[in-house]
Structure formats: C-alpha cells, structure tokens
Amino acid sequence: MAQKSWQLTRRTFLRGSGVALSLPLLNGMADAADAQQLPRRFCSAYFPFGVSLPPAKHEDAEWNWFPEGAGRDYRFRNVLKPLESLKNQLTVMGGISHLNGHKMGGHDTGDIFLTGARFDGSHFGNSISLDQYAALQFGDQTRFPSLVMSSDGGVGEPTRSTTISFSREGRPVPALSSPRQIFDRLFGAGDDDTAAERIRLVNSGSVLDLVLEHSRSLKNRLGRHDQQKMAEYLASVREIEQRVERSQRWLDIPKPEVAEDAVNVEVSQDAPREYIQSMYDLMYLAFQTDSTRVATYMIGQVAGATTIANAFPACIGLQGNWHGLAHGAGKKGGYERLGRFDQFLTEQFAYFLNKLATTSEADGSLLDRTIVFYGSSNSRTHNNRNYPLLLAGGGDLGLKHGQYLRYKDDLPLSNLFVTILDRLGVPVGQFADSTGELSDVT
Predict the structure, then answer these.
(1) According to the model, what pLDDT value does residue 317 have?
(2) What is the pLDDT of residues 2-11, one digit of tens each?
(3) Which residue in 174, 164, 391, 417 sits closest to 298, CA to CA?
(4) Which of 121, 364, 367, 436 is 20 to 30 A (C-alpha) from 37?
(5) Residue 116 confidence (pLDDT)
(6) What distance, in Å, lies between the first and last C-alpha atoms of the chain?
(7) Which pTM was predicted?
(8) What is the pLDDT of residues 166-212, one digit of tens each?
(9) Full domain range(s) for residue 12
(10) Structural domain tally of the chain?
C-alpha cells in the first residue's frame, strides 16, 4: 500500500547541523506503522512478603488486599482503591501461583516470580525470566533490550536475588538501583569521543573473535563435563558479542533528549515515596522514548532483614520494618498496619499506570500497548500460594479487563505468561510448567 503524503514512518528523524533526533510517535504515523507494527511493551513490578489478608468477618476486613465479589461484579477494598479510575484497564487475580514454588522456602520464591523454575535441593538452577524471553525476541529493535531495576541493586544471592530478571542460562541479570545512574544510561551523553568509542567497540569485537577461534581448537581436548562448562562460557561470550554489535549499530544515533527535571534523579531510598515514583518515572520515560520495550522493577527483595526496602514503611508513619510488618499481620491492628503499607504501594503503582494511560500514542495511549504485571510471590509472608496479582494495560494487544478472576484451585502462573507472550507477538508452546493459555484475559 502506498504511503500517503502526511504519513510518517516510526523511524523518521529530524535532521540538521549534523544532528538526528528520533521523533515521538505521532498520529500521522498511525497508518504507516500498521505495516511495521507499533511497539509492544512489557514491564513487571514485584514486592515481597505478601499482603494483608484478614478473614471475611474480621474487624479489619476492609484492609484485605483482594476485592469483594468476583468476575465483573466486584468492588475494591481499601488497599486497591487508588486504582478505582483504572478499573476497566486492569484485572485482579487470585488463586494463581507457581506450582514449583509450593515446596520452596517462603523467602525464596522471588527468584522464580518471572521464571516459574523448579529448584531441587541444593541445586539453584533457574531458567529464563518472562521479560528476558521477550527481550530476546524483540529487544534488538531498541537501544536497550531491557531495563532491569531494583531498590537493592545488583544480583544478591541464590534464592535471595535482588533482581527478578534472569538470562537464558538462568543467571541473574544485575539490577540498577540509582535513578541518576539509570537516567544517565538511558539519556546521558556518555563518551563524548565517538571515534574513541568506535575503536573500543571494534577492539572488543576482535578480542571476542580470538576467544571464539581458540575455543574451537580447545573443545576436542576437553572431557564431557568440561565441554558443558565451556559451552556455558561461550554462550556468555556470544551475549557480549551481541551487545557489542548492538552498541555499534546505535553509535551514530543520538539518545533522546530528556530534561533531568522530568524525573528526580537525586532521590535515594531514604525517601521511599519519591524514590519509587522516580523508578516508575524512569520506566515510563524509557517506554515513551522507545529506548526499550521491556522493563522490570523489584521494589524489595525477599531476604528478610537485609533488603533496603525494609525501612520503607516508616515513610507513612509505621513502626518496624516491612518484614516484621508482614509477620505481625495477625496481631491486634496488624492487618490494618500492613494494609496501609499495601495501599501505599498501590498508590505508587496507580501513579505509574496513570502516566501511561494519559500519554497519547497513535490513536490510543502508551498503556494500550503496554502489558503491566504487578504482584508478589507470597499471599501471606512465607505462604507461596494464592499470589496477589494485577494485570493491566494491553487493551490494543487483545487483553480484556474490568474483572476479578478468583480461581478456586492453584492455577499455574506460567499459563498467564504464555498468554502475555502471545499478546506480545511472541507465541510460545510452553513456558516453565504451563499447561495452556489463560483465556479469561483475552
């Protein structure tokens, strides 16, 4: 089909004085983008320790995380009320969990939140996470295949990771925790000497070529166990090689110009409300500028007293740490105290969803083409069943919302992952222990 005179391609650039800046997605790009497809995006936010779940007739029943009712006939209780205006753009889920996590320790399941992997005994062999699987399929279309963030940063330790993203080999993908560092990576000028950077990348490629060439002659001299270790090593080398190639492709394309005051880059975890909002702002800006289409944020890790986020409840006047708050839920006033902090987290999540929902993209919004997955791998602390989960956005990708799906039996969370991948244009026969798709959301 011929392109009309007023239509623009998604990769149209403004050029002048040797500078090329990519345009945001304009309405005039809508029809032209049909041929090359508008972006499909995925992000996930995770929190530890479960939620407030008082019994139905308890005096604090209104602080139960899950809504009252079911299907389309339900109402939010106190915790999820900040999402009221977004009710038709999200789905609440209960009765879903990773079956492989049922026998794991209560503080170990954060590692498998997006993988669904099975850990046997002392073997902590994880698998690829949902976000990284998607990034492998379409991450080469953006400067950054994915954005991995957490409040604690780094990778942590096995079953107590400080990231929810894992590579195809099941290795933790290091998370960034500094808003300043993340902003500079996404939008900073970086190395001013482009020629020097180009030489560095070329030299990196040359070194990798030599490593791969030497490995071929070495492989036949190794035993079977060492060959397996060599194969894992070479897989890592190939990933580095791919990153070098991708960096070379983007070297001549300027990063988007984003003013620093678009996000509070100087905030730290000492100001939890502002910090969490800044992390959400960075995900939003990364999507708005099409710097990446895949992002994760681990609000807190599950390692009890060692998580930086343990001190977050103090920002709304709650005494004690997050871990202790969760353990004290059954004590006098405990459900309300934990519920108030759950509500605080919901407010920040609603802040993020509203930014996506009120930002235009073609004839819809950023949220319409972004699948957002939010929740925890505990119901109550140490209980690895009945995850509190929210699925939002993706209306233009075929997801339907405005419902509370309450399953009576444990349904594999991986079934939802298969559905999400299908809506992202990455159909997969099986993911982890999935048994099919989750048709209730499509």
Answers:
(1) 97
(2) 444 334 444 4
(3) 164
(4) 436
(5) 96
(6) 30
(7) 0.84
(8) 999 899 999 999 999 999 999 986 544 455 545 554 555 555 555 55
(9) 1-37
(10) 3
List, in sequence order, every beta strand (DSSP E) within 198-285.
Answer: none
Domain endpoint, select from 254, 276, 304 = 254
Maximum separation of any 2 CA atoms in the chain, in Å: 72
Q: Residue 433: exposed, middle, or buried by beta-carbon count in 10 A (0-12, 13-18, 19+)?
A: middle
Q: Check if the beta carbon of residue 439 is closer than 8 Å to that of residue 418.
A: no
pLDDT of res. 1: 40
* Spatial distance between the Cα atoms of 352 and 349, rounded to a whole number of angstroms: 5
Residues 229 and 374 reside in one and the same domain: no
Taking phi over 0 as left and psi of -120 to 50 as alpha, with beta for the rest, 311 belongs to alpha
* Cβ–Cβ under 8 Å, residues 147 and 286: yes
Question: Are residues 68 and 141 both part of a single domain?
Answer: yes
For 242, counting Cβ atoms within 10 Å of its Cβ (0-12 exposed, 13-18 middle, 19+ buried), the class is: middle
Higher pLDDT residue, 41 or 223? Answer: 41
Q: Are residues 219 and 266 in the same domain?
A: no
Residues linked to residue 15 through DSSP beta bridges, in sequence order: 20
Rounded to whole angstroms, the Cα distance separating 165 from 127 reads: 10
The three-state secondary structure class of 309 is helix
Whether residue 358 is found in the same domain as residue 284? yes
Do 180 and 220 lie in one domain? The reply is no
Q: What is the sign, positive or negative, of the torsion defined by CA atoms of 15, 40, 130, 387? A: positive
- Phi, psi dihedrals of residue 325, rounded to the nearest 5°: -60, -45
Three-state DSSP class for 438? coil
Provide the pLDDT for residue 204: 52
Q: Which residues, at least 6 apart from 375, have a Cβ–Cβ distance to it below 8 Å?
A: 46, 47, 93, 113, 387, 388, 389, 390
What's the whole-number mean pLDDT along residues 332-357?
98
Instruction: Specify burial of residue 320 (Cβ count, 10 A radius: 0-12, 13-18, 19+).
Output: middle
DSSP string for 69-130: EEBTEEE--GGGGGGGGGGGGEEEEEEEE-GGGTTS-TTTGGGGTTT----BTTB------H
Are β-strands 41-46 and 294-298 bridged in parallel, bridged antiparallel, or unpaired? parallel
